[in-house]
Amino acid sequence: MKKTDELIQSTQQNGQVACDSFHATIEFIGKRWMGIIIYHLLDGPKRYHELATEIDGISDRLLTERLKELEAHGFVVKRTLPSSRKVEYELTEQGIAFDPIIRSILTWVKANGGCTESKTESES
Amino acid sequence: MKKTDELIQSTQQNGQVACDSFHATIEFIGKRWMGIIIYHLLDGPKRYHELATEIDGISDRLLTERLKELEAHGFVVKRTLPSSRKVEYELTEQGIAFDPIIRSILTWVKANGGCTESKTESES
DNA sequence: CAAACAAGCTTACCAATAGTAAGCTGAATT
DNA sequence: AATTCAGCTTACTATTGGTAAGCTTGTTTG
Description:
The structure is a homodimer. Chain A has a domain at about 30-105: Winged helix-like DNA-binding domain superfamily/Winged helix DNA-binding domain (Arc Repressor Mutant, subunit A, Orthogonal Bundle). Chain A is built from 7 helices and 3 strands. In chain A, about 55% of the residues lie in helices and about 10% in strands. By secondary structure, chain A is mostly helical. Chain A binds a DNA duplex through α4 and α5.
């Protein structure tokens, strides 16, 4: 049995469907900043500004956009504390389920040292 | 101990550096089509056109670009069979190391049904 | 209690990345 | 010899992201 078949079977009995949702999923969590936002939310509920501060380089626009997307997909709940302007974002159970993915990436980074070395010297 | 700290410590003793390479890595493998290309290459060496056919919707331009990036980072080797116009791409050991990440995403997809349901009805 | 400020967005504009489609090269087929 | 087809490359458009400013409403401060 080929490896890909094995992988596909591990999700569903229908290769194509599994492949489609795999595609949709990896494209979703692969959107810029998405993984990092999830990573920081795995720490527990965070306020908007807290995230904006912790995630170096992200802009308000994209942070808001990504949080909305996460919320729309049910990975995050937005809790607006009613008495004040405090807003908290918290991962849902489905969102917390991303943890193994994040951990597997961290494991990879640990083993391989990350993707920072560009090795682009092969182009003359 | 907070969860994030724990995650960071699992990679390095220095939180910031670990976070940086995590960022770089997740942005790299999160690039459009990157994960899907790796997923298909986990099956074994593939020819260019084979990948282009299997990965539905990808364009020549992006497939070439992503393969070059993977090659530049040492995740893929390009083997040009000299007698003909056959070109094969194969994951290196470092590339094969992505397998657990792909698997963790597949596991997630299996458990959660993927990211296809948009649930955007919350906006009136 | 009015002015200033700050959190949490929103908008506008420009840059970078991706999609589309066509073309190019050179081996293989007819 | 002409055609086809793999494996790119180029040119152009569309979508996405970055930057910066502004808006709104609650809080603080004089």
